Amino acid sequence: MSGHAAEEERSSEEDISGIKPPQQQIFHTPEAVEDFLRNFLLKAGLNRTLSCFEAEWYGSAPDTFIPDALAHRHVLLVQLDSVRRDTQLLGKEVMAAAESLVRTQRERDFHRLQHGRVAEQKHRLLGDYKQLGKHLQGCERALRQLEDKYHIALRHKTLLSLQKDRLRMSSSKNQSGRLVDMLVEPPQPQRK
Question: How far are the Cα atoms of 82, 115, 128, 129, 183 from residue 122, in angstroms, in the given order?
Answer without folding.
Answer: 58, 10, 10, 10, 87
